[in-house]
Each structure stands twice: as structure tokens, then as C-alpha cells.
Amino acid sequence: MSEAFESIKAGLEQAIDHARGKVVKARVHEVGPLDVKAIRRNVSMSQSEFATSFGISLGTLRHWERGDRQPRGPARVLLNVLARDPQAVLNALREG
């Protein structure tokens, strides 16, 4: 088989071993839930201001804050950066 196939196969075998509780040399990244309401309050914005500023629908923001849904993809990245360094994100918005 090809080198790419062998690499993929080895990775899948490691993932299966990990899922079965075996110790493997893989890195495991666990992603916990975000407290979107706390992030929004930390930047002192209303739901409407926050949604408008970051291009999120108000309905989606409300679902996140209630815990009905969790942000995914680029929205999750933005919220993580906003939680860690809100001033950097707010400065980038003002400059844009």
C-alpha cells in the first residue's frame, strides 16, 4: 500500500485503541463547552450589540447562551480568542 494509506491506517488504529482505553502516543484535545454569556458580559455588550458586532444571528447567540447549542468552527475560534484577549478582537474590529 501507499505511504499515505499506512499513515492513515496507523492513525485510525491509534484512535480505536484510545477509544478502548489503551494508552497511546496520540495527543488528545478535549474541547469543553464555552460560557458564551460570560464572554459577552466580559466585553460589556448587550445580546444585540454582540450579535451585530460579530456577525452572529441573535437567535443563534441566544441558543448558545441557554446551552441549547454550542458554537462550532470559526465562531468557536472567535469566541475562544475573545475570551482570552478581548481587547485584541475589539481593536481588530475598530481598525477594520
Tell me the layout of helices and strands.
Blueprint (H helix, E strand, L loop, with lengths): L2 H17 L16 H7 L4 H8 L3 H9 L6 H12 L1 H10 L1
What does this structure look like?
The chain has 2 domains: 1-30; 36-95, lambda repressor-like DNA-binding domains (434 Repressor (Amino-terminal Domain)), CATH 1.10.260.40. 66% of the residues lie in helices and 0% in strands. The chain has helices at residues 3-19, 36-42, 47-54, 58-66, 73-84, 86-95. α5 (73-84) packs across α6. The model has no long low-confidence stretch (mean pLDDT 90).
- So, CATH architecture of the largest domain? Orthogonal Bundle
Helix content: 55-70%
| Rg measurement, Å | 19 Å
The helix/strand class is mainly alpha
Total strands: the figure is 0
CATH class value of the largest domain? Mainly Alpha
User: Biggest β-sheet: count, sense, barrel?
Assistant: none
- From the spread of the alpha carbons, the general shape counts as elongated
Terminal CA distance reads 50 Å
Strand content: under 5%
CATH overall fold name of the largest domain: 434 Repressor (Amino-terminal Domain)
What oligomeric state do these chains adopt? single chain
State the low-pLDDT regions, or none.
none
For this structure, what is the CATH homologous superfamily of the largest domain?
A: lambda repressor-like DNA-binding domains
Number of helical regions: 6
H/E element sequence: HHHHHH
State mean pLDDT (0 to 100 scale): 90
